[in-house]
Amino acid sequence: MPDVPRYSAVRVGDRLPRLTHPIRRYDLVRYAGASGDFNPIHWSESAAEGAGLPGLVAHGMLTFGVAMRLVNEWAGRPGRVSGCGARFTRPVVVPDGYDGTEVVVEGVVAEKLPGSRVRIDLTVRHGGEKVLARPRAVVALDD
């Protein structure tokens, strides 16, 4: 288990380790089963193209979940995230084949908050382009 960051040692501007996470089509199937989101744009090429998309796309909440994985791993223990949010701005297109695609997540401590909490601002990219707007999380740390 990674070291748990302590509030007193964390500084605004501290960077979280970069996370590169693969997403493959079978991840879309697994996520659909777990979430109950069987929208055909996640499994049918013709439905995705009919919706004006360039191909099958990852579920927005799957992409956001990948972003939150970085925060949870940095926080070192489950249950430390007390709030999170983002807006979905671009689809993550998942091509056929074993390699799929990658989502790259970076984070920075943006603000120290009362109650030994910090706000983490994230950058989430696919193909070099941001796919989430204002992704952030609030994390409670020990002092």
Give structural attributes.
single chain; 143 residues; alpha+beta; Thiol Ester Dehydrase, Chain A; six-stranded antiparallel beta sheet; 33% strand; elongated; Fatty_acid_synthase; MaoC family dehydratase
Give an account of the 3D structure.
This protein is of the alpha+beta class and 143 residues long. The chain has a domain at 7-23 and 61-140: Hotdog Thioesterase (Thiol Ester Dehydrase, Chain A, Roll). Helices cover 23% and strands 33% of the residues. It contains three helices and six strands; from the N terminus they run βαααβββββ. Strands 1, 2, 3, 4, 5 and 6 form a six-stranded antiparallel sheet that branches. The longest helix has 16 residues, at 60-75. The protein is elongated. The mean pLDDT is 95.
Number of strands: 6
- Report the helical percentage: 10-25%
Instruction: Let me know the largest β-sheet.
Output: 6 strands, antiparallel
**Roughly how many Å apart are the termini?**
19 Å
Mean pLDDT: 95
Shape descriptor: elongated
Strand content: 25-35%
Low-confidence stretches: none
Instruction: Report the CATH architecture of one domain.
Output: Roll
**What would CATH call the class of one domain?**
Alpha Beta
What's the number of helices?
Answer: 3
Helix/strand order: EHHHEEEEE
Radius of gyration, Cα only, in angstroms?
16 Å
CATH superfamily of one domain: Hotdog Thioesterase
Q: Helix- and strand-based class? A: alpha+beta
Instruction: Find the CATH topology of one domain.
Output: Thiol Ester Dehydrase, Chain A
Family: Belongs to the enoyl-CoA hydratase/isomerase family.
Protein name: MaoC family dehydratase
Organism: Microbispora corallina
Pfam families: MaoC_dehydratas (PF01575)
